[in-house]
Prior knowledge:
By secondary structure, the protein is α/β, with parallel strands linked by helices. The protein has 2 domains: about 10-130 and about 365-380, Enolase-like, domain 1 (2-Layer Sandwich), CATH 3.30.390.10; about 135-355, TIM Barrel. The protein has helices at about 75-85, 100-105, 115-130, 135-140, 160-170, 185-195, 235-245, 260-270, 280, 285-295, 310-320, 370-375, and strands at about 20-35, 40-55, 55-60, 145, 150, 175-180, 200-205, 225-230, 250, 275, 300-305, 355, 375-380. Strands 5-6-7-8-9-10-11 form a 7-stranded parallel sheet. It has a 4-stranded antiparallel sheet with strand order 3-2-1-13. Helix 5 packs across helix 6 and helix 8 (about 260-270) runs parallel beside helix 10 (about 285-295). The radius of gyration is 20 Å and the shape is globular. Bound molecules: N-succinyl methionine and magnesium ion. N-succinyl methionine binds near residues 206, 306 and 332.
Amino acid sequence: MLTPSTPGPPEPSTLGALEGVELRRVRLPLVAPWHTPIGSVSTRDALLVRTVFAGAEGWGECVAMGDPGYSAEYVEGAADVLRRHLLWRLGGPDPLPAAADVAARLAPVKGHPMAKAAIEAAVLDAECRAAGRSLAARLGATRSRVTAGVAVGVTGSVAALVEEVDRRVAEGYRRVKLKVRPGWDVEPVAAVRAAHPDLALQVDANGSYAAAPGRVLALDGFGLLLIEQPLADDDLVGHAELAVRVRTPLCLDESITSAAAARAALALGACRVINIKAGRVGGYLEAVRVHDVCRERGVAVWCGGMLETGVGRAANLALAALDAFSLPGDLSASDRFYAEDLTEPIRLNDDGTIDVPTGPGSGAEINPRRLAASTVSTEWHPLRSSP
Ligand code: SMG
Ligand code: MG
């Protein structure tokens, strides 16, 4: 049996006390509007968390979207729960010992995994930077580069979709994910498959077949790698019933909110593949636990994306470098969504891979000019108790 990957031991603390946390709202225009079964986005309204310790600082990105369409969280709500209920739990007379303790400190607050994950990411980043160690090494990564994947939204016409897929393939992407919903499925998927017979192709429905599970069967004949989240988040039994009617593996995204949820889904036969997003499961450390559950069971996983800026994208690359991430993730280059990222741009290699950052922490190098130009607001929350 495979042994679970063990993240490295906690670093000896050169961090010092947590002085405070900055919440920073940024807005980045997308290179083109992004249309999905759950809404459209033309500007990424994101929330960054900066933890400032006496000895180091770190950044995390909250992946909540502007609207509560993907999950219950949304960026303004995440900022609110951070300021009212989460941040103070890291301060006070009993200083936070390490990133591994963040989840337990925040556990009295139910839900809000994306807000919690952003704090944990920022503490992990600071901890790794203080130790001169990469997040990838801290999480137990085994690869130095990962195969990229690109997600293509719902477009105005089938011809426009095929044109976009042609362009992505020409850019060097070897795996493409299409967004589908009832009415935008068989015809576009058939057209892309006809134009690219050998392309690694998969689809994501964001739960849009909940009212018509039988319609998913029409997607079974296109040699897809997987069909992602056809039914509602909480419908594990419905997914299990559908899974025995289709040959294409079902993959769950929204339904997998923790390692326990992953165990339940796999025990029920609700999916054969899992999309892991650190934000959705409450942090990178829980994401590693989801990975370990899948690894023990021989289940394929891949790293999802939430239109992250370079801050979150770099951390996702570290996660995707763990060994059970056997399928390409929604890990594209910075320029897939942003003409100018907040960080040094993440680039696609000629062979369709992206390098896993090796620098300290997440490896993201924030460009101060770009950060300042994208910032909408900042707030400082001091946490150090007076001596
Ligand atoms: O970052 O490449 C990306 C986006 C990938 O499709 C993507 N994400 O359900 O997997 C998903 C969506 C969620 C974000 S759109 C609201
Ligand atoms: Mg998805």
